[in-house]
Amino acid sequence: MHFDPRVQRALKEAGLDADAVADASDRVAELVARDADRLREFFDGDDPYYSDMEMAHSAASRQGHASADVDLFTHGSDLRGYLSLDGWGVPVEGGR
Question: Is the pTM of this model over 0.90?
Fold first, then answer.
């Protein structure tokens, strides 16, 4: 079950039985996995990538990156990992 106890209680109070809550939990996990796949596909191309990350030796407001790599994992409703742009990177949490 990927809902915390408060959410489970609220769903049951809204009329969902235990099976419906479990089905909803499974659906959340499926959607998170789909989002992770979409992020991986986006960064799988050969195109340059652009970011607004501040670089120490650049005055440009938008940085160009020749390569990108994303390493993601999912667990229930969690989508986490790391995005690397030419060696510079940021953590990914919640798909952002």
Answer: no
